Amino acid sequence: MTLIYNLADTFFVAQTGDTNIIAGVSLGAPVFTLLMSFGNIFAQGGSSLLSILMGKKKEDEVRRVSSFCFFALLMTGVVIGFLMILLRTPAVLLLGADADTFAPTGDYYTWLALGAPFIMVSFVHSNLLRAEGRSTASMTGTIAGALVNIILDPIFISVLGMGAKGAAIATVIGYIVTDLYFMWFVRFRSRILSLNPSEMFIPASFIRSILTVGTPAAIVNIMQSVCIVLTNQFLLPYGNEKIAAMGIALKVNMIALLLLTGFAFGGAPLFGYFYGAGDRKKLSELFRFCRRFIFCTALVLAAALFAAAPAMMGAFTGNRAIAEAGALMLRLQVITAPCVSIVLLLTIIFQSFGKSAGSFVLSISRQGVVFMIVLALASHFVGYMGILCAQAVSDLLAAVIAVALFRVMLRGQFSVQ
Q1: How many CB atoms are closer than 10 A to CB 36?
Q2: How confident is the model at residue 217 (pLDDT cuts 50, 70, 90)?
Q3: Please, which residues have CB within 8 angstroms of residue 145's CB and are 6 or more apart in sequence?
Q4: How high does pLDDT run on average in the chain?
Q5: Can you list the alpha helix ranges (DSSP code H) found in 133-203?
Q6: Among 20, 29, 363, 398, which is most exposed with the fewest C-beta within 10 angstroms?
């Protein structure tokens, strides 16, 4: 559903045929990823702790943790949104906007900043409900928001002529709908989650646990934002068409990335539950299934998107130059999807076990330190093609690091390898 949010905005913005608006939304995309990163501090950190507490049958503590995560993230969202508005002009310039793209990038950025609390808080119950075993409710709330976004996008972007601003407003309204549904479900249907502010006070040890697991998860998204900004900066000398093409290619690549992320997270509540219960046999069975399933899925997704790259890009834009450049970019993004699947699964296992050190290292690898080093070197020695190949090389190196960390830090937790 996050994929649908992103593709809907990209598709309807691309239909305007205005390269500057397309590039402006592409430049503003890291803002959404940044908001997701702060949301994941309490969403994924809280989800990991909830699974372990549920495995230990401590439901009263589960209620307190869920209430704390909701209110802590709501307040964090207000602060982040305020700071984003305060730093609007330097932030838009930092994203890579020039004289032609400053206005659409600024419009998109401003409305995402205003909607920051609503966007960020949606990730809490999306994750906590899955940890409770209410995956259908989690999916329903997200689908409701996505449908609202899809309906409003063409109205705001094209009919009302609001362009990039309309895309952002539609996105924020969609997340408000999601939040309202989640709050209703937790209040009246959830057995163990809470929205009661009197239950939001938890021990310092729980807060540390949430932050030590959630912070590496957030760093993944923060690093992703930074890497997109850096990529756009390196592409800037080649023109706004290349930036627009990369923006669309990255969104289409999210078909593979977000599906793999979803499948990886599918095992998170069980990994945490079996780890908390000390059931090594079931942990091993779960790991064997997950690693085979997600790797095979990655192969299929990579092959499908590689073959369909020209058609996918053509569906988003009628600009031939953007479509051709984007098709090559997309193919170079998806060829290492199997490596990405390994990194995602092992990162989730580290998070589920509360192993913050391993999770942190993986968080700053694939779209972090490794990517930055590879991007700088590849751009310097190879030029334009080096920029395009940087992510694939980083994915391969990150997979090697992930497997090495697993063997050193986690192998003993499984009874059968």
Answers
A1: 22
A2: low
A3: 1, 5, 122, 174, 175, 176, 177, 178, 181
A4: 85
A5: 135-154, 163-188
A6: 20
